[in-house]
Structures
1.
Amino acid sequence: MNSLRARAHLLFGRRSHQSLAPHQHLSPAVANDLVISTVDENSGIAMLTMNRPPANSLSMEMNEAICDSIKTIEANAKIQSVILSSTNPKIFSAGLDVTELVSPDKDRLPRFWNSLQQVYIDLYGSRLATVAAIQGHAPAAGCFLAMACDYRVMSAGDINSDTKKKHVPTIGLNETQLGIAAPPWMGQLLVRTVGFRQAELALALGTLFPPEQALAVGLVDDIVPHQKAESGEDQLIDLLPSQIKDQALNPLLQRAYSQARIYAKIPPQARVASKMVTREEHIFRMIAKRDEDTQHFCGFVTQKAVQKNLSAYVEALKNKSAKK
Ligand SMILES: CC/C=C\C/C=C\C/C=C\CC/C=C/CC(=O)SCCNC(=O)CCNC(=O)[C@H](O)C(C)(C)COP(=O)(O)OP(=O)(O)OC[C@H]1O[C@@H](n2cnc3c(N)ncnc32)[C@H](O)[C@@H]1OP(=O)(O)O
């Protein structure tokens, strides 16, 4: 147990992305625009709210802001749990910013990929208990963000009161639909989350799961119907950033908050040591294979055929949005 604790300290007890990989980071002021951090030292709970309109897609700067925010919260010993949420009520995160992948700058591309690897190291390996509040869509790397957390609650969707149209969020690794493959470590994270056969099927088909199915395969831990709650807790209201202060009666955020509170009450050393049991080897593997993974990614993504698929995908995405 002692050696486990010592190893837990080694991996989780210090600022992982400072000590393990010296990549560039934005100043906190800029990072705070992309990811809003709020903390409540009394309850030991923090909230990281992704705020990169229109879709919280992951550019290099967004990845760096996520890592910076985790680092800042981890440095506060009073905080044990963090909720990862979004200012966009319909999109948790649209995954990688696809414009980073099309006709990429050859110097930026590896740095961009390093920044995503760093999110894996910092979020999946965080000492904090992490709860993803998935209000809206979470495709590809958006799903990865959720899987890197300890617990996932997802909205069951809602009905637009004006148009009466139903909004049903989806989650999954849909990369094959873009003509690319999920990176091996992201695919393996899906295997660890939903099991071998479900992951094998979902990876090949690029399945995006609606909430009920995501729950059935174990991709999320809970789904929450949208009906507004009758009352909100003051502590949650205080934690919400001004951009989403009006969400205090949102049952999804309330559910995420209650789960964060459950985690915050577990003795942290025990919680962190048990988190290591399942995550340590994967974090170390990423660190050991980081350069190889980056070369693999850059080589794959710059292939002519892959660029063709990605360009067509980005075009379709823009056309779809323009037609709205
Ligand atoms: C053995 C293996 C071998 C090799 C592998 C090695 C390495 C791996 C290689 C490559 C791996 C690369 C990994 C990629 C992972 C990813 O994350 S790829 C990104 C995948 N994301 C998506 O496919 C999502 C695309 N978006 C959507 O489907 C929809 O936008 C969404 C359902 C999220 C929301 O729909 P809706 O509410 O209708 O909004 P709009 O579609 O209208 O979008 C609003 C605006 O947002 C912009 N946008 C959306 N998504 C992205 C994005 N991912 N990046 C950048 N921008 C995005 C969209 O264009 C609209 O903008 P506009 O209004 O036009 O300004």
Note: The first helix runs from residue 2 to 12.
2.
Amino acid sequence: MKITEKLQKAEREGRPYWSFEFFPPRTAQGLQNLYDRIERMRNLGPEFIDITWGAGGKNADLTSSLVQVCQETIGLECCMHLCCTEMPKEKVEWALAQAKAHGCQNILALRGDPPHGSSTWKPTPGGFHNAVDLVKHIHKNYPGDFCVAVAGFPQGHPETPDTPDGRHQEMLWLKEKVDAGADFIFTQMFYDTDILFDWVRRVRAAGITIPIVPGIMPIQNWEKFQTWVKREKIVVPPHFYDALNPVKGDDEKVRAVGTKLVAEMCRTILGNKEAGIKGLHIYTLNLEKGARMLLDELQLEGRREQIAPLPWRPSLTPHRRTESIRPIFWANRVQSYLSRTDDWDEFPNGRWGDSRSPAYGDLDGYPVSIGISPAEAYSLWGHPTTFSDVAGLFARFCRGELLKLPWSSQPPASETSVITEQLAKMNELGFLTINSQPAVDGVRSDDKVHGWGPEGGYIYQKAYLEFFVSPELLSPLIRRIERDPRITYYAVNRTGDLRTNTHSEGPNAVTWGVFPGKEIIQPTIVEAVSFIAWKDEAFELGLQWASLYPEDSPSRKLIEDIMNNSYLVNIVANDFKDGAGVFAPFMLDQKDNGNGHVADGVVAGLVNGVKDAVNGLLNGNGDSH
Ligand SMILES: Cc1cc2nc3c(=O)[nH]c(=O)nc-3n(C[C@H](O)[C@H](O)[C@H](O)COP(=O)(O)OP(=O)(O)OC[C@H]3O[C@@H](n4cnc5c(N)ncnc54)[C@H](O)[C@@H]3O)c2cc1C
Ligand SMILES: NC(=O)c1ccc[n+]([C@@H]2O[C@H](COP(=O)([O-])OP(=O)(O)OC[C@H]3O[C@@H](n4cnc5c(N)ncnc54)[C@H](O)[C@@H]3O)[C@@H](O)[C@H]2O)c1
């Protein structure tokens, strides 16, 4: 069924509607778990769901098969996102034909963000320039088959100048999409309803009468909230921060307070007669609880009553087909570990979660983006021309003298202060760090530096380091790491050459908390699958940094070379009682005695940033066998 018909029906019945957005998960296990989650979330009564389109057609197969399963098997009306980025017409044809074959009658026609490795959008030869071209193409080639939605930006599109002329021009382009046959508008996320209402007024004044469906991003935890707000440059009203700042260290409280704030925002939207908005589109980020809590808080009319329970049938997830009793008791506790609760991956969402979670890689529905203009990059990082210039930037960041790196959008966390000098030295030695945590052996959960989670608990961490390094420095480092059985590592280059000394594919918990009356909470893990999924993003960010410099410039070439040649490495010092152990293989303070220690003057040489000298020395005498 077309979404416009569903919206008209809800309006005739005088009830609000809501819908959910999901993205194709990054890992196979995440996908399997998402099917079960969507099936459960069907009971929250969404009028329809939509599935995002991976940047540049990446995961196009996955978007298409998610649409198929949701439409045909789970029985939810789907809207498939479709972008123009890196999509020649044949690929667009394929996607539309598949959607039609799967019974999907709704497409969100988008231009898409710039392709991988580029900070500006360029059309693909033989493809489309703007969303409007896609809208026209769909109606011309599939007359009557699809209801077509388009995107609208209450705060203005980031590429449009924020001036009266810019805003006027953007409205004309939105009107052009509508005149080309768009049936309704999904908005970008926002938290300021005044901005939304002002935009709706301008949309209506421009003669656009089609329904507007506002995009609502629940506040799931502090990190995600911050990431999205910064990434999309979303204006947040001061009362949001007044309420969230005091609880930002406790994810459970952030979600509770955030739910109330967002619910109040939704009530304001639905209650504004002039705007005439009748429903909400919830960006779930593939998580269940935020959407559920928001709908519970809103108590919208028609919630639950309208939903007939699904008849029991085997799970869509193959390894759960043998489970015979659902949903409360499971046949086999170990096998059903993941589904013991519907929110096993919700709290607290750690630095990087469990790759089995459908929510793993939640930025992946959208293109990876460094989110920085060339001008900002030059002012932050200048124009590096030697490896030591780059290493110097990393070292300065670790010492708190630089606000951002392409991989680190915020200054180092306070917990990093205890290892600042070691990190800075590592960078000067050629190990470009992008992530770290010190070891922690049972500090209280309300500790100002290392604490997190509910009151009355204790926190533990294994020391962790993640960095880029040249193959020349990697080999001796690995030999030194392998002398200490307490240290595990993964190293992978851009093309996927993986080295590790781990013997298990399963997760290695690196942060865990013990709290009164709860299971152990293990928010941060290291494991091969998520590391491999993450490495694409890590290298991509570096290449985007390079692309901010003009073609053929020394800075672009230098950073591209580093990304193309380096390995991304993570190491875990599993003995969390030995805080210094993680730095031992780097021999930050030692002198060479010809027996496995760095040669006299090498540190000084490295500090001066003479990369070739470093590599030569470490290869020649810095490493022993
Ligand atoms: C609800 C929503 C869902 C999204 N889902 C996805 C997704 O699944 N996958 C993904 O990769 N991205 C997604 N995005 C991001 C989106 O692709 C980007 O924000 C993109 O930059 C804009 O897409 P658009 O369809 O609005 O493009 P367009 O309407 O083509 O606009 C792009 C830019 O060009 C300007 N413009 C518009 N028409 C013209 C014209 N005729 N001539 C010249 N300039 C013009 C606009 O003002 C704007 O600055 C989504 C965004 C929203 C709001
Ligand atoms: N290994 C994996 O499987 C995997 C998967 C996904 C993401 N990640 C990592 O997770 C990060 C995103 O999580 P986050 O938002 O918690 O990260 P973050 O940028 O907030 O940093 C996490 C910790 O690393 C420290 N840190 C930040 N930049 C650093 C740097 N340049 N050098 C040394 N330490 C630094 C911070 O002080 C903080 O303690 C990514 O940057 C990536 O490194 C890893």
Note: Residues 266 and 280 are 8 Å apart (CA to CA).
